[in-house]
Design a protein that fits this description.
mainly alpha; 66% helix
Length: 88
């Protein structure tokens, strides 16, 4: 390769490195599912009010959280406290 081609290639690689690094979005933080005691406080409410979400995807934490929020006036006091303690 000629000196110009090597220089051009090096320049292109250096210039494209930041662009390639920006192509992948930052991954979101994992969702806090609460501790075992908090899960126990909400499990009866999830079983009672969120059967659709459980059947579609039992690991859909955001869907189950949305269900609990939609049924806030009907869920147990304990589960309401868990949601409030997590800013929900």
């Amino acid at each position: 390769m000629s000196r110009l081609s090597v220089s051009t290639f090096a320049l292109v690689m250096i210039a494209s490195t930041p662009v390639m690094a920006q192509q992948f979005p930052k991954q979101p933080a994992p969702i806090d599912r609460g501790n075992a005691q908090e899960q126990d406080a909400c499990r009866p409410d999830v079983d009672k009010f969120c059967q659709t979400q459980l059947q579609v995807n039992p690991n859909d934490v955001l869907g189950i959280l949305s269900c609990l929020q939609a049924n806030r006036t009907r869920i147990s006091t304990g589960c309401q406290k868990v949601l409030a303690s997590h800013g929900q």
